[in-house]
Amino acid sequence: MITYFHLEEDKLDIFHHAFLEAVQSLYTAPVYFRHRSQPNNQDEGQNPPRRAGKQILDLGTGTGLWAMSMAEEYPDITAFGVDFYDFLQPREILRSTFFCGHINIEKDWDPIHQFVDWAAGLRRADSHTDPGFDSHNWDLIYARMLNGAIHHWPNLFQNIYNHLTPGFGCVEIVDLDWTPRCDDGTFPQDSHFEKWFGLLNQAMETIGRPLKINPNTKNLLIEAGFVDVEEKVYKIYHNPWKRGGHEEQTGRWFNLGLTYGLQGMSLAPLTRIIGMGEDEVNELVEKVRHEVCLLKHHGYCNL
């Protein structure tokens, strides 16, 4: 139901920068990849040598910016990105990055296996060596901003668990809790943001794809077989009211993403499911935009 226009693609990339500012890292999972600033022989002399990951899978890759950023920062890895849509990813990409659309990650992952086999064939034809790709053993599986796109999370968690490198692979799931929060009472009680999110989540719940964070997510992961499940929470400020450092930059990026992306997120669900008129939706969106741009409102969402 999320409408994909050029503004929506821009929003995905803008949110990537907002999340990067908030977390200060492309990933936080406890899996090691050699950074481009480290020499190839940096682990020589260790007994045993430190194991480094080689393959990552980005679920719901969108424009592919996270996967490409990982491939640039960690030159030893090959990054694969899959998405239901096939027109968001760039056509000119890094040699160590592969993208594929029309993939339903909640169902059987045979299409992903076929995609990786195809990529291996390209690499063999290019280098005349076997790249050693293994679509059954991923060192890191990354899933970001999938709330609103998934019907049955337990199926997805089981698919992920079954495709991680045993004893080494990790999954990192990143999503935004759109519930507006404020610690100092400056956010309005009759918030347009809160009204907007309530209506949008109502629409998405109607089609079985709620936007709200499931408080039972940790238990669902454990039921799928995961161990050492850890939750980290970061504040994503609505605007740059908090001056100084990466928190101010987080607010700048997130505010830009909101002003770009609110209409694309809202129009189809609120008109087709809730039954609002297009003018009514646009009016609400403009009120939310105005509200989140006021620096006197110290609002934020949790990541």
From TrEMBL:
InterPro entries: SAM-dependent_MTases_sf
Classification via SUPFAM superfamilies: S-adenosyl-L-methionine-dependent methyltransferases
GO molecular function, one term: methyltransferase activity
Source organism superkingdom: Eukaryota
Signal peptide annotation: none
Family classification: Belongs to the methyltransferase superfamily. LaeA methyltransferase family.
UniProt protein name: Methyltransferase domain-containing protein
Organism: Lomentospora prolificans
UniProt lineage: Eukaryota, Fungi, Dikarya, Ascomycota, Pezizomycotina
